Amino acid sequence: MPACRRLNSRLRQLLLLLSLFSLNPAVHADGIEIDTASIRMINGFYTVEARLIYRLSEKAIEALTHGVPLSFVVSGKINRQRNYLWDLNIYSSRQEYRLEYHALTEQYLVTNQVTGQRRIFLFLTDATEHLGRITMPLGEKAKLQNTKRLTAELYAALDIEALPAPLRPIAYFTPQWHISSPVHELSVP
Amino acid sequence: MMKQRYPLLFPLILLLLLLGTLVLMSNATQNSAEFDALYSILLLFNLLGLLTFIVLISLNIRRLVRQLKDKTPGARLTLRMVKIFTVMSVIPVLIVYGFSMDFISRGIDSWFDLRIEQALDDSLELSRSSLNMRMTDLLKQTEMMAEELLQPSNAIKPLNLSKLLESSNIEVSNSFSAFNLDKIRSTSGTEELAIFTLTGNLIASSSSNTNIIPNPPEETVLLQLRQGGSYIALEPLPKAGMVIRVVVEVPQIGIQTESRILQALYPMASGINELAKSVEAAYIKYRELSYLRDQLKISFTMSLTLVLLYTIFTAVWAAFYTARRMTAPIRDLVEGTEAVARGNYETQLEVSSQDDLGLLVNSFNDMTRRIARARDEAKQSRDEVDLQRSYLEAVLGRLSSGVMAISKEGFITTSNERVNRILGITLSSGSVESLLSISEEHPHLKPFCDSIAYYLSRPEEDWQDQVNLFGATGHQVLMCRGTALLVHGREDAGHVIVFDDITALVKGQKDAAWSEVARRLAHEIKNPLTPIQLSAERLRQKYLGKMAPEDADILDRLTNTIIQQVDTMKIMVNTFSEYARSPQTQLKPTDLNRLVYEVIDLFQSEIDTHIETDLDVDLPEINADAARLRQVLNNLIRNALEAQHKGESWLRLSSRKIEKAHTPYIELRIEDAGEGVEESKLASIFEPYISNKPKGTGLGLAIVKKIIEEHSGTVWLENRAEGGACAVIRLPLKVSAQSTRHELRETL
């Protein structure tokens, strides 16, 4: 399944490109903003610490409150720059979070899909704020001791492939479902 | 065959793949866990497959349009089949599509009933109410526990307090004496009890699961507590189910004590937990479905539309494929037919099927074989006919007789070269002339044409006739024989006429006869003439002196008469002998013009004779006996002069070179202004003893004709339109070696 998800992410990017030609060219303020991001060394690991601001669109909120869980993927990479070819990826890491609405308790649940840890919030803003606090180890520094020209990037986006199947085709061609951040470049210390 | 299978296999495999993916897509739409993640890929695959089909169909359409423009055989049939297939597939599929869409829409709408929604809302509300009641009780219970913590007695260390102190480095208030968390927890039935500061720092905790470090309340909870309220909420935990979290403020003891909060987690009874989870799950599922109603319709519509398009495209492609297969033999047949029309009878088509079209192809192949065989046989027959014709033409060409085939309508269909030579006309091969046109164009041939026309009307008899013609070459006698052509299956196929120019034969026979007669007469008559003359002279000699003057006079007259008449008879006999005699003709190159001038000079002395000459100065020499030609000229000029009144004589002599029937001649004309010749005598005037003059031997013209014929020429008389007669002599031009050298010298 993870391989499928990676493939689907490529597919998602392709369909995202196609959706640029959709009939709704309206510019919207929804999305994910990377407020702060930096790489620190924690226990010998390159670790990204970032604060993301999630601005969910009306459609996303409506879907959330109607029981559609939203999955967000935060991915970080460390690349080595090359002169004549594209950058060589050395480390990559991703975190997946699931944001859902619990109707019975009228609360918002944020679950780490990898660790299974769940946080419960009464308000959506609290949940998204929790989503925005990122601490993500990327890779061991010792293995890159003599490697020069390292760059890092951080990216977060709503995983459209995790939406229910009937919603996906529409989501690909609806800008309000393209909730993502720009690729944020970081310097590697 | 492999080439034909490939176009069939590829679309079939593609279609099967696409149908398979449609099935998977349909399952994914219905939230099948196995295919849910593949939905987008399947959709994309289907779209690409659809695009492939569109490209396939477009290529076929483009090829068909090109074939229609080029008017390729079978293109219209293909178009018709495609139209029929498309209409036959689109209409029912569209009907099914329309109804299916309606059913899907209604079906999906039927899933969602307001009553069901209301029931779910009510269930959720009931659950909440029930849980709220429980939570209210637990709030009170927790508040009581908080107060209980302030009790100074029964201070029992929490079992894990030292550990907490070591790991969390929490400052412990010595005045906090409520170390009965464990006891309280165990008696209250909570899963976890924890004491925090209002800033979220853990003071103490007690938990049934010692491995879990309690989570501090969220900031919003702490804020609520700071504002003096309590917090109670139902929280769904992963795997553990739902728990009730209560956070209350622990009452302060004294002023210096930092505010504390007590957090308690109460597990829910498993039964209630399950029920609550069930209600919540159903509610959320229904809400999700309700929200995705339109999207579901769109997904099913998309799947159905893909099926519709696949069906239509498959039908269209099948139409193209079937039409191509059906028109291929037709196209081959058309090409084969065109090849046969061009003359290529060896065309054989490949039989690709055993159906009706295969039968047609077999019949075509059989037909071309037969045609080729018939052509070969016809060619062979034609070659044989050509050979026979060539043989016949060679034989006919060498015949001395003229052979003509004349149709019933009087058109000359076939003739040999001899016909042209005998009649002096030119019948070119390939042209069909009628007897009527020939007689109009060559009036002298009218008797010939009339004779043939007469016998054409009597096809049942073989006939023979002698025709006399008087034309450019003089008198001509033709012996004609005719018979009806018998062609199998055709009546009145015409006549075949064979004729010979027997002029020379007749003339020869006549000449021979006349020569014999002349010779005998000359011999029989001449013999007694001398004795008669001698006897008469003797009588004169013996008795003329002895008789009385009167009797002597009578004797004298009578004997003179006898002697004169005998002389006359001698002359006549000599002339006859001369006519009968065939002297040796000595041919030498002779200038005819010079000969004419010589003869004219003899007559110039005659008074009142006007002689005009129009002689061609370039007249070539001919091989002739000058003495005998001189005799001819002398006879003809004398005849011309004697035909006119004395003192009013006019003569015109003209010579020129002509060509008749590809033969060059010298033509000499001697015209006079006399009374002409009776038409009835023109044909026979050159025969012995036929004369226009009151006196004369009647052999002059016969001798002229004899001499001219000895020179292989012709002579005839014709009446001039202006009056008078014209004697025409034609002598063949035989170019002598001397004259050739002379001409060449002049050329150089």
Can you lay out the helices and strands and say which pair or pack?
The complex is a heterodimer of chains A (189) and B (748).
Chain A: H1 2-19, E1 31-42, E2 45-55, H2 58-65, E3 70-80, E4 88-102, E5 107-112, E6 118-121, H3 124-132, E7 133-140, E8 150-158, H4 168-172, E9 184-187
Antiparallel strand pairs in A: 1-2, 2-7, 3-4, 3-8, 4-5, 5-6, 8-9
Chain B: H1 2-29, H2 33-36, H3 39-69, H4 75-111, H5 114-148, H6 161-168, H7 181-188, E1 192-197, E2 202-207, H8 219-226, E3 231-237, E4 241-250, E5 260-267, H9 270-291, H10 293-342, H11 356-398, E6 402-406, E7 411-415, H12 417-423, E8 433-434, H13 435-441, H14 446-456, E9 463-471, E10 474-484, E11 495-501, H15 503-543, H16 549-580, E12 588-590, H17 592-604, E13 609-615, E14 622-624, H18 626-642, E15 649-660, E16 663-672, H19 679-682, H20 700-710, E17 714-719, E18 725-732, H21 737-747
Parallel strand pairs in B: 13-15
Antiparallel strand pairs in B: 1-2, 1-5, 3-4, 4-5, 6-7, 6-11, 7-8, 9-10, 10-11, 12-14, 15-16, 16-18, 17-18
- The number of distinct helices of chain B, counting runs of at least 4 residues, comes to 21
Round the Cα radius of gyration of chain B to an integer and report it.
73 Å
Classify the helix fraction of chain B into a percent range.
Answer: 55-70%
Report how far apart the termini of chain A are. 34 Å
Fraction of helical residues of chain A: 10-25%
Shape summary of chain A: globular
Largest contact between chains: A-B, 38 and 42 residues
Kindly state the mean pLDDT of chain B as a whole number? 81
Low-confidence stretches of chain B: 153-178, 735-748
Beta percentage of chain B is 15-25%
Task: Give the strand line-up of the largest sheet of chain B.
Answer: 8-7-6-11-10-9
What's the order of the H and E elements of chain A?
Answer: HEEHEEEEHEEHE
Total number of β-strand segments of chain B?
Answer: 18
Approximately how much beta-strand content do the residues of chain A carry?
35-45%
Please identify the oligomeric state: heterodimer
Average pLDDT reading of chain A: 84
Query: Poorly predicted ranges of chain A (pLDDT <50, ≥5 residues)?
Result: 1-8, 22-28
Based on helices, strands and strand pairing, what is the structural class of chain A?
alpha+beta
* Cα Rg of chain A: 17 Å
Outline type of chain B: rod-shaped
